[in-house]
Amino acid sequence: MNHLKLNQTQIQAVVDQLTSQPDGVNRLLEIAMNSLMKAERNAYLEAALKGNKANGYRSVSGYGVGDSLSLQIPRDRLGGFKPTLLKVMKDQADSLNELCFELYAKGLTTRDIESITETIYGQHLSKSQISRITSSLSEAMQAFRERPLAEYYPIIYLDATFVKTRRERVSSEAYYIALAVLPDMTREVIGIYNAPTESASVWNEICVDLKNRGLKQSDLFVIDNLTGLDSTLETHFKAPIQKCILHLKRSILNKTKKQHRPEMVSDLSDIFQLENRDDTKDALLKRAKAISIKWRRYYPHLKRLEDADWLSYYATYLSFEYDIRNMIYTTNWIERLNKAFKRTLKIRNSMPSVESVLTLLSKVAIDMNSSTYRHPVSRFQKSHLFK
């Protein structure tokens, strides 16, 4: 058979005519890629052992410009030929998978992702396909949650957030977060856990897991008034505990009559003199007792402020250097992380499974770990943490 030979000008004219059509660019890509793979097979067979020959084609779809490509992958009889373009196509598919997961992790629904991938790639991915893509990355997220830890972190924040999750039915379930501050003042999520409800037994399991993964020492745990957490921490670690002062104030004010709140705010600020560089725990406890005596006839529960053992958990920050007190008297740092979790999850009314929540929370945590979050104090000097 005689082959038609065209000069460069004629080839350019054919290309111009083809690409001027609505789907011309993708058709040209199909021709070029199919031709390259066929030429690569010819070269492979010429260099191969005798007895091997061409054995037809298999059809696959590729990603084009706003449309899918119909590609013909050449085959050989012995099954040894693998065109170079297959790796390019695999890399392209991997990139699409990563894009789908990133979009899902940023809060887009599977329907949103379907629309985006079809517009950009011309490839319609169904809801089930996208779900499989996101599920395929859950192993990497699990490996992140189970990774080994350093033996020492200067400060560890612990908190729980609640997410509507489907088991047999949809209900709010507790997801436990451990956020550590490293010696260089960066932050790192070191634990993400789930349990249907918050309880002391769950915190015990979390402490055991942190220890099994390598944690031995911390200089401080910062927590909210979470059920059974203080006693559990004291069982596993020899480190002081600071309970969140802002949560304590909020709890007291929520039980205070409206007309008393301005004065109560002032009195609570007098107890916790956060800007007083020379304040001491003994002085704080005396002020708290005076405020309790002032208000307890109206609010009997405030007699708790006279319990030195109980209130000491809220005064631990005074044992530390003044320069770091504003980062340890509250759980604000971990609550900012919880807000990032909520932003990712809020677009969904509920999550289909516990694993889907853990996967998304892990992705947010990995993104946060890759960013630099620092406190104005440039670096911890362990000997200077305490006064």
UniProtKB/TrEMBL annotation:
GO terms for molecular function: DNA binding; transposase activity. GO terms for biological process: DNA transposition. It comes from the Bacteria. Keywords: DNA recombination, DNA-binding, Transposable element, Transposition. PANTHER family: MUTATOR FAMILY TRANSPOSASE, TRANSPOSASE FOR INSERTION SEQUENCE ELEMENT IS1081. Required for the transposition of the insertion element. Belongs to the transposase mutator family. This is Mutator family transposase. It comes from Marinomonas mediterranea (strain ATCC 700492 / JCM 21426 / NBRC 103028 / MMB-1).
